Every structure is written in C-alpha cells, then in structure tokens.
Amino acid sequence: MKTIKFSFKNPISRIVSAVFFLFITGVFAVSFTVREKQAIVLTRFGKPVRTIVDPGLYFRLPPPVEKEVKVDLRLRTTASGLYSTQLKDGSIIVIEAFVVWKVPANIESVKTFVSALGNNTAEAAVQLRSILGSSLQTVAGSYTMQNLINTEKKELKLDDFEKELANIITSKTESVYGVEIKTAGIERLMVPEPIVASTIQAMIEDRRVLAQKTRSEGVERAGQIMSNAHSESRRIIAKAKTSASEIEAEARKKAAEIYASAYEKDPELYKFTRGVDTLKKLMNQQTTLILKTDSYPLNYIGEFSQTDKKEKKDE
User: Which of 53, 72, 91 lies at the terminal end of a domain, its last residue?
Assistant: First the structure.
C-alpha cells in the first residue's frame, strides 16, 4: 500500500490547506455567538433586520452586508446628583436619588433602545439622570419634611416616596427608551444650614403640642376615673347604710321582743334594768345628777338595799 505524506511542498497539500483555511474563515465570517446578558441586533447595510435575545450560535451574511450590534443587558445604576427641591409644607431639602435599570431581554425593548439611544449606555445614563431630577421635583411636592425625616416610624413615608418615584420614571422611559426600571431610591437627604434651626424648632413645637395633647387626655381620663370612683363609693356607702339600717331595725325588733319577754317574767326587774340603761345613756364621767332617792330609777336601788338589810337581820 502506498503512503501519501502530507507536506506543504506537495501541491495537493497546499490546495487542501487553502480550502480548509477558506472554510474556517467563511464559518467565522458568517457565524456569531450571543452570550448571557447580551442581545444582538443584525443590520443589513446599516438597517436593523433581526434582533436576537436568546444565547446561542447564529449565522448571518458576511460583512459588510450584515453586521451585529451588541446590546448589554446587565443591570446599571445611575445617580441624580444633588437636587434642591421644595416639599409640600414649603420646606427646602437637598436630595440625591438613584435608579437601577437595564435593557430587558425582549425584542421590542432592544429595538427601542438601539433606535432611540444608538445603543449608547452613556447617553442613556444622561437621559435617565435628567428624568430622575425632574421626577424628584414632582414627587417631593406630595410629601412633607416629617414624611422624610422623622424619629417616628409611623410618620415616615420613604417607601411610598421611592415607589412613586420609580413609577413616574418608568412611565417616562419604558416606551421611549426601551429601558426597564428595577428600583429607585433616595441615597442622601440633607437640610440646608439656614433651615436646620427652623426645622428643629418646628419639630420641638410639634412635640410640645403632642405632649400637651397627651397631658390633656390624661387629665380628662383621670377626671373620668375620679368621677366614676366617687359615684361607685357613694353607691357602696348608700347600700351599706341601707343594710345597716335594716340590721339595726332587726336588732331593735329582737331587743323589743327580749324586753317584752323579760317584762312578762319579772316586771320589776325589767323596770330596774331599763332604768339602769337610761342612766347609762344620760350620764358619762363628767355628768352630775342630783336626784331624790325615791326618784325613778333610784327608788329600786333603795328598795333593794332595804331588802338586803332585812335579809341580813333575819339571818
């Protein structure tokens, strides 16, 4: 079997090498790759004819007939710079905001971005910066200083501010420039020096009004509690007095029954004990009474004394 050695000195080898080289060159000339986070716009003699957003290997007519324009789909951030703006309450504040954006991976957005901005991300940032500044002026007119700078969380509305800002920017850029606004936010908030003192004073006044309101509510509540307590105490005392009167009446009734029973058994003893009770009610340590010995109830004491003497004599 005859062996053919490959050598560039051999004419056949030269032809095969040339054909292979031309084939490889042709493949490179008519093929291109779309990478992740990238889109390709094919132009034919400068006019867009095809937009590709899916990664992979594709083919085209060789240059200069068709050329590809690479569009970056990665996230980008653009800052507004410092803007002095007036708030709803008339306060002046300096705001710096930012916006996170990208060209979305859809054919219409890529076409719009290329046609409106020439696939120039720097120009897109310039336009977004201008729109961001004007949108700040618009949104700031709906919020007060207390909504943006406050120690009370319930008074802060920064989230609402940022959402409204993102919505306004989206409405101005999505259909015009083909960019998607992922988020917008406030990077810095500053109060001009001449306004700092007045702002602090206004915050102090707000706290003073709030404290006065709280104190007034406390006094009113305390008055209600005291009124309720007095009313309840009067009710309890009245109920207690009623119960005491009923108990006293019942006691007097029973006492009268006991006295009646005692009278029936020994009328003289009953008269004596009643007389002693009467003396106890009339007399105290500083009372002096001058009575005859035969006066009621001392007459019983005399009688008992004579009876006692008589009994001792008999013994």
Answer: 72
